[in-house]
Amino acid sequence: MGRLTHVAIFTWKPETTEAQRAALCDGLAALPGLIPAIRSYRFGADAGLVVGNDQFAVVADFDDAEAYWRYAADPRHVDVVERLLKPMLRTRHAIQFTPSEDGVGASEP
Amino acid sequence: MGRLTHVAIFTWKPETTEAQRAALCDGLAALPGLIPAIRSYRFGADAGLVVGNDQFAVVADFDDAEAYWRYAADPRHVDVVERLLKPMLRTRHAIQFTPSEDGVGASEP
Asked: Could you give the CA distance from residue B33 to residue B5 in angstroms, rounded to a whole number?
């Protein structure tokens, strides 16, 4: 588990197609193999359990803030964002935090 | 790692105090010891790396949707939400998803 967790939650434009969603998932799935700064990378579409949820999330772990910036600036990541994600994007909410260790202690800014 | 990941991202009311933030973190930190359905539980305040971020996140892993519901309905969790979180709450964005395995395969709804 990295020492910095990045979380982003998205909603998509109504006209977003299944092909666009699939292409985004394929693009994201390739990133951990391309960007060594990524310690852990998970993403997925909302499971539909709760009404009012957003639609998609990415949870990524990094060793530190510098590693997060390497990921954010990596051209392979930027390409997925610009070419595959942004055309679908309606809303995005994100945060990077130093995670509590499974309930042992909490992170304060 | 559980098979269902719950992510929630929050912003707080401007009048929220440091004491309220600390009480919320203490309340959340106790939950993994009280609710066996929780497989992994991480939370924290935004690290301040990126302008425009939200302010706080919780990332929790469960074995399945049924375990997520046990957590959501557990009175110790409901108490933290009602007594500590809601008085601070401005916005909340959440999702539950079956995570991709670190880039190997993607989750589709």
From this structure: 18
CA contacts within 13 A on the Cβ side of A58: 26
What average pLDDT does the segment B2-29 reach?
96
| Minimum distance, in Å, between the CA of residue A70 and any CA atom of chain B | 13
DSSP secondary structure of A52-90: T--SEEEEEEESSHHHHHHHHH-HHHHHIIIIIIGGGEE
Locate B82 and state its tokens. 């009602």
Interface contacts A/B by beta carbons within 8 Å? 172
Residue-averaged pLDDT of chain B: 92
User: What CATH number does domain A4-97 carry, 3.40.50.720, 3.30.70.100, 3.40.50.300, 3.20.20.70?
Assistant: 3.30.70.100
Q: What are phi and psi of A77, to 5 degrees?
A: -70, -45
Which sequence spans correspond to the domains of chain B? Answer: 4-97
Q: Which of A1-15, A30-44, B11-25, B70-84 has the lowest mean pLDDT?
A: A1-15
| Closest by Cβ to B106, choosing from A44, A48, A100 | A44
pTM of structure: 0.91
Interface pTM (ipTM) of the complex? 0.90
Dump pLDDT digits (tens) for A55-95.
999 999 999 999 999 999 999 999 999 999 999 999 999 99
**Among all residues of chain A, which has the CA nearest to that of B56?**
A95
